[in-house]
Amino acid sequence: MAKITYVEHSGAAKTVDVPDGWSLMQAAVANGISGIVGECGGSMACATCHCYVEESRLGDLPPAEAGELEMLDMAAAEVRPTSRLACQIHASPKIDGLVIHMPETQG
Ligand code: FES
Known about the structure:
Blueprint: E1 2-7, E2 13-18, H1 24-30, E3 50-53, H2 66-72, E4 83-85, E5 99-101
Parallel strand pairs: 1-5
Antiparallel strand pairs: 1-2, 3-4, 3-5
The chain binds FE2/S2 (inorganic) cluster (FES).
């Protein structure tokens, strides 16, 4: 399990216990967190789960695959070096305490 804090663009934050193996998109949708849409259900086909990961924790995540980077190019909001798709980040004890920020818009 990992405690993940989701920070909306407005600054509103919510911390959620995410079971191991769940994607951060799944957990956001299940917990009614606005700012993550997850339109394609996690098949890396929409970029509406775009988020910004804290820079200091980027090394705790497996690097983005080519398909994720391609999809991020379609993201509605500014893409930064810390941009990831929340559907491609899966909970594990390694990412406990991670904070992700949602962009201004997902579409
Ligand atoms: S939910 Fe569609 S790309 Fe992540």
